[in-house]
Amino acid sequence: MAEGILSAEEFARNILEFFQVSDLLKDGWELRYEEKHAQQSCPYLVKRNVLRALHIADVGDAGRLDEHSRTEGAGMDATLRNMEEEEGEGGDGDEDVDVAMPDGRAVVAACRFDYHIVYNLSYSVPTLYFSACHQDGKILSLDEVWQSVPSHYQRRLQSERWTFITQQEHPILGRPFYCLHPCHTADLMTAVLKATSQTSTSHSNYLVTWLSSVGPVVGLALPLEYAKLCEKR
Amino acid sequence: MATSGQSASQAKQLQFAPMNSALDVGFWHRLSRKKLEEYKLDDSPKPINGYYYNGDPDGLPSRTSLDFNSFDEPIQCPPHCFPSHGTLLNFNTMDAFKSCDKKAELEKIAALIWTDITSGAALKDPSLLSRFLLLTFADLKKYHFVFWFAFPALCSIDSINVSKTQHLNQCFSEEQIQSLQESYDAIADQRKGLAYFLVQKQDDLLVVFPLSDWDLLPDKTQVMLGFCDPCTLDQYPGWPLRNFLALAAYHWSDELQNVQVLCLRDRTREGVRTTDHSLVLDIHLPSMKELHECPKCVGWEKNQKNKMAPRKVDLSASMDPTRLAESSVDLNLKLMRWRLLPSLDLDKVAQTKCLLLGSGTLGCNVARCLMGWGVRTITLVDNSTVSYSNPVRQSLFEFEDSLEGGKPKAQAAAERLKKIFPGMQATGLSLSIPMPGHAVGSSEDVLKQTREDVAKLEELIDAHDVVFLLMDTRESRWLPTVIGGSKRKLVMNAALGFDTYMVVRHGMKPPKEGAVHDTASTSDDGAACSSACDDPLPLSPKSPSFLCIPGDKLGCYFCNDVVAPGDSTKDRTLDQQCTVSRPGLSMVAAALVVELLVSLLQHPKGGYAPADTSAKDDHLTTSLISPLGLVPHQIRGFLSRYHSLLPSSMAFNMCTACSPIVLERYETEGFEFLLRAFNEPHYLEDLTGLTKLHADTENCDVLDFSDDESITSQ
Ligand SMILES: [Zn+2]
Fold first, then answer.
1. B310 CA to chain A: closest CA distance, Å?
2. Which of A231, B62, B348, B380 is geometrically suited to a Cys-Cys bond with B231, CB 3.0 to 4.6 A?
3. What one-character DSSP code corresponds to residue B612?
4. What per-residue confidence (pLDDT) applies to B287?
5. Domain that holds residue B639
6. How far is the CA of B529 from the centre of ligand 1 (A)?
7. Is B351 in the same domain as B235?
8. How far, in Å, from the CA of B513 to the mean position of ligand 1?
9. Which of these is catalytic: B263, B354, B533, B578?
10. Which spans does this entry mark as compositional bias, Acidic residues (chain A) (predicted)?
11. How does residue B679 score in pLDDT terms, banded at 50, 70 and 90?
12. Any domain includes B681
């Protein structure tokens, strides 16, 4: 087997081990199976609803709404403004006063990230797909996703080819997702495994090594507990 | 018990952090599909579901999340999340959305909750306490969605007061907290998503019980109410507590007038679990035992402007197939840049406006290749219609296009480009290009038409950055060569013989005085090519030069006419005039002319880039200035030998299309000059001193023959 890649069987074993650790840690990974190939169903991992508070320049919801009002004008927006005026004051007048967000907190956009780890047959490596959207379901633009990359990874994003983010259809769900393109994963893993003087076969959990190295770029950090899976057997 | 810094001596009214909605784009995808394939015009209530979580980091709002799985039965919550039962009302029109009786709809849900409380159903399945209502209107043409959530909460008949608010670790020891976690886990594992529960101290440890165990518990006044709290605020409990308190006030108010409430917040960070930050509230709970009708209900979500009104979201960027096609086309090109050529300036290519004169095999293939490079603005010009023989070779046409006399080629090609990729700004125009030696005649109408045609062509060339000469006659290339040269546009030329082709970029004359040019300066041509070559020798224009020539000294198609390659084609000249070329030839030449343009656009000097040649195999060793490689003046190919050459030649100072005298006359006399060129057979030859041009040309084989079987009117 070529360097830095992983067979589908090894991938399946890796993610089962991974899932067991996750279950203990209660960190929210789900194990799913692709349904269409009943005889050879390939498992994949999903972590839904990871909320990240992002300081994205000017993504105020109100701002976006206004923008639409200008461009779309007419019907729907007029009706919406109309409803605001009619019902805006009404409230419910309830004595159970809602708690407003406490003072002094900057308005941050809470964005939802979902992560999917899927095996890529043509590259023989795992691939990280993710979706990222605002609270109303509008997806983050590629630029916003780039801005969401923690500052200490920004340079890496520029310089390292294996961390670049692109948009692709999810191979199982068929909807557009962002992904860390798999074309350089094998190079990355060859380098990483060499550095730790292991090979992909003797290495006990390829998935953890890979994910802990690329995940943080898109806000996915792995607790140290997973590292136990990588200790040499 | 630990003392608390937060404890207040006098009681205040208990306040709750409101629930927020959080939607994943997958939810909208699924709703759109449901609406199109299943609901259609059915706007009756539909069961959906959401979930919330009690482990978020500080500062995040409590929220009920909906995603792609929200329509699935049974509910598929992510691990450690708690289900919420939703009712979806998807309206068919914005008016229906607006005029729906929202108060009544909310009351319906409130009644469900109240019935579940009073019947005891919620004691067996406490998740029934968490419900929501979602009103939507989906505009699936624009991918705009209007929505409004309500998280119904039953109000207490009297205010609920809180006398003390503490953290869990202020009330209980580490050991007790540990016992609480273990006991909770044991029960929660049996019942997926245990959101509401009872806690009692037994043997000084905290033990968790399901609500249905109430009757079994010994000293009921010592029971704590526990719920999983999605709120992260330090002083307030989250919304799910409200209906739980309604349940407790109805069933257990005798025993629990003063009760402790555990707001369980269960967070794992860096692999370490903690519940210490959970809140413990000491509250006074007014009884609802005697209440026989459903209490008042609140819970509409405010919009972004903090008003009681719906929200709107525009998802065209992620759902509109046209927009998706655009972004994936962009990404595909960016991928090429990121992976291979970091210095590639794709925007420059994308923004280049291309005018394609001729919409035959060359025009179609050039357009396709430009589209592949991300060029978005393409204008096609032709004056013929699609004939039966065209579609097999002309890659933008189909059989249908040739029916009923055939569609106009340029328009049909432009339409097809937009069908292939809706992001294209493609236009097709029928236009006859006047030709020298083809007398216009003196009729007023014809003259007027010719004048308009010339004006239109000038306007088109003005509005574009690049002019492609892809016509099937040599003469029709003359006028755009003159205009393009005068306007300092990039002029790209491709011409086909039977099995030979020629691709040439016209030399770009030095910028006009006072003209501001966006390309790198070329004023001193020596410098322009000094880095790459020695002084060009003054060469006879009749012999091809294999020395490096700066861009502004390069010849045009008509200069090159007289230095046509080899003599192997001479004998075939007559055949070629009425026959086709080898079918692959147009694809090869079209691809090369586009690739040459893109290489040129990436060259720092653009159209002024000195020409690379294949003389002495220079093309194999010379250092590349454009990131894409060589920028030759010409590519001449011989398909029979699968061979190509990269010659370059100087502008010919007697050229009928680009010599100084021609450009000067065009610029000063305009249409009057052109008219003489069209009408008077020897005018250009006389003007340039090349009286024998046509005779020479006929002997010298030309590479521009119809790639169409029929000879068109030219
Ligand atoms: Zn010329």
1. 7
2. B62
3. B
4. 93
5. 345-528+554-647
6. 20
7. no
8. 21
9. B578
10. 84-97
11. confident
12. no
**B244 and B212: one domain?**
yes
Percentage with pLDDT > 70 across chain A: 70
Whether B307 and A225 lie within 8 Å, measured CB to CB: no
Strand-pair partners of B136: B90, B147
In a domain, residue B609? The reply is yes
Which of B236, B249, B349 minimizes the C-alpha distance to B289? B249
DSSP E strands: which ranges in B302-412?
311-314, 353-357, 377-382
From the list A49, A223, A225, the residue facing B65 with the nearest CB is A49
Taking the C-alpha atoms of residue B273 and residue B700, their distance in angstroms, rounded to an integer, is: 87
What's the token pair of residue A171? 């191979």
DSSP string, B620-680: HHSPPSBTTB--BSEEEEEGGGTEEE--B-BPPTT-TTTSHHHHHHHHHHTHHHHHHHHH-
Q: How many structural domains does chain B have? A: 3
Nearest to B308 among A87, A108, A135 (CB): A87
- Residues B178 and B39 reside in one and the same domain: no
Give the helix/strand (H/E) hosting B592: helix B583-602
Residue-wise over A20-44: b if at least 16 C-beta within 10 A, else e?
Answer: ebbeebbbbbbbbebeeeeeeebbb
For residue B58, the SS3 value is: coil
Confidence of residue A148 (pLDDT cuts 50, 70, 90): confident
Query: How far is residue B113's CA from residue B123's CA, in Å, rounded to a whole number?
Result: 12
Residue B620, strand partner residues: none
Same domain, B489 and B608: yes
Question: Which residues in chain B have their CB less than 8 angstroms from residue A108's CB?
Answer: 59
CB within 8 Å: A183 and B18: no
* Å between B503 CA and nearest CA of chain A: 36
Together in a domain, B137 and B259: no
Does any domain span residue B30?
Answer: yes
Distance from CA of A133 to the nearest CA of B (A): 6
Query: Quick check: A207 and A15 in contact, CB under 8 A?
Result: yes
A228 touches chain B (CB under 8 A): no
Q: Does A161 contact B80 at a Cβ distance shorter than 8 Å?
A: no
Residues B214 and B308 in one domain: no
What is d(CA B114, CA B288) in angstroms, rounded to the nearest whole number?
11
The ipTM, to two decimals, is 0.81
Residues 232-261 of B with CB under 8 A from A: 233, 236, 242
| Helices B478-486, B671-679: crossing angle, 10 deg rounding | 160
Catalytic, B578? Answer yes
> Nearest to residue B200, comparing CAs of B188, B213, B191, B189?
B213
Q: Which residues of B touch A61 (CB under 8 A)?
A: 304, 311
Judgement on whether residues B133 and B175 belong to the same structural domain of the protein: no
CATH assignment of the domain containing B361? 3.40.50.720
pTM across the whole model: 0.72
Residue B133 lies in a domain: yes
